[in-house]
Amino acid sequence: MNKKSTTLLVAALLLGLGLGVLLARQGGPALEASASAHDHAEAESGHAEDEHGEGGHGESAGGEKGHEEEEGAIALSQEQIDLAGIELASVGPRQLQRTLSLPGEIRFDEDRTAHMVPRAAGVVESVAVVLGQQVKAGDLLAVIASPQISEQRSELAASQRRLELARSTYQREKDLWQEGISAEQDYLQARQALQEAEIAQANARQKISALSGTTVLAGGNRYELRAPFAGQIVEKHLVPGEVVNETSAAFTLSDLSRVWATFGVAPRDLGKVRSGMPVNIVASELGEQVEGRISHVGSLLGEQTRTASVRVTLDNPRGAWRPGLFVAVQVPTETFAAALSVPDQAIQTLEEQSTVFVRTDEGFVAQPVELGASANGYVEVRKGLQVGQQVAAAGSFVLKSELGKASAEHAH
């Protein structure tokens, strides 16, 4: 190896040694930082895993605690129960009565409904009422001008004058006959004329009196239609200027303070109904229920329905029972003893299941039940309750609402 080659080899070795030292000096801190960061990350990860393990354990404990709570329970203090207006009822035996539920309809009381028509042909001058208006007995409804009224008044006046003349002639002929001045035949003719005049006047008065009742004669050729009793104008067919006659419908007036509930009864069930029997009338659309008594049981069967018409007379002071309203008529049939019963108000529906809220030390708990027959505001409970338990009656819907809120918050 010559001197030049040796010198190049030594230079290459020295350069490689220098680069190695330089790289070692620069890479040491980076490696230390990387190792430190790695150790720190492992520590962080371990700490997080510890925390996650503890948190998972806590959630598991909480879930177990939630499962331990009774499902459907509502915690309420006595003060909260009082403020919510929740009333309690005891579960116990009761005599209940089975009922036969039949469809019915509210109708006008036909004994207190008048279909008014004009008493004489003519032209409507004025109408004093509007549809739906409440009127009192004797109130003016309409004024009608009629030529027939003029004719009848003229006839009455003429008959009155003929009667006065016939009476005067009769008295004169009677005096002359008694004095022997006039013949008896003249006296008899005068008496016959007087009798005919009296008959003519009576006929004229009867024609005028035929307009009485709901009609009052006014001046000239006019007469007035007036309300025969207090009620409501449920139909109105007159307007000023309209030509009417004795067959024209004018008004329908009905006293809605009393209505009829009518329903049909099949022949197989006719033995279960009788006049004077108490029944319940239920309007589910209004949430209304009232007790009435059967006032009439029809003697004939309908040609199409083949049922006997039965009616119940109902007082209607608030006007809630409107004609045309469909109702259910509950007819009692037989009485039986229910081992367990609760008020109808205690029954709520949760997830398509009949449920009651049973009183507990902490508040209430929802209890599914199996129901039987219902009557007189109570319902038979076949399964789900025991004698002596307290359940929420009035205000139980508040508990249903609270339970629904709790379920929604839990799902959220």
Explain this structure.
The protein is of the alpha+beta class and 412 residues long. The chain has four domains: 73-96 and 336-411, conserved putative lor/sdh protein from methanococcus maripaludis s2 fold (Beta Barrel), CATH 2.40.420.20; 100-109 and 256-334, Elongation Factor Tu (Ef-tu), domain 3, CATH 2.40.30; 121-144 and 226-254, OB fold (Dihydrolipoamide Acetyltransferase, E2P) (Beta Barrel); 147-220, Helix Hairpins (Orthogonal Bundle). Helices cover 36% and strands 35% of the residues. It is built from five helices and 23 strands. It has helices at residues 3-68, 78-83, 147-179, 184-209, 396-411, and strands at residues 73-75, 88-90, 92-108, 113-116, 122-127, 134-135, 140-145, 215-217, 222-226, 231-236, 243-244, 251-254, 258-265, 278-283, 288-301, 308-315, 326-343, 348-350, 353-359, 363-368, 370-375, 378-383, 390-392. The strands form five sheets. It has a six-stranded antiparallel barrel with strand order 3-13-16-15-14-17. Strand 15 and strand 16 form a beta hairpin. The longest helix is centred in the first third of the chain and has 66 residues, at 3-68. The protein is elongated and about 120 Å long. The two termini are 89 Å apart.
| CATH uppermost class of the largest domain | Mainly Beta
- Based on secondary structure, the structural category is alpha+beta
* Helix and strand element order: HEHEEEEEEHHEEEEEEEEEEEEEEEEH
**Which fold name is given in CATH as the topology of the largest domain?**
conserved putative lor/sdh protein from methanococcus maripaludis s2 fold
Mean pLDDT over the residues: 78
**Major sheet: size, sense and barrel closure?**
6 strands, antiparallel, barrel
In whole angstroms, the N-to-C terminal distance is 89 Å
Strand order across the largest sheet: 3-13-16-15-14-17
| Total number of strands | 23
Proportion of beta-strand residues: 35-45%
Label the overall shape: elongated
Low-confidence stretches: 18-69
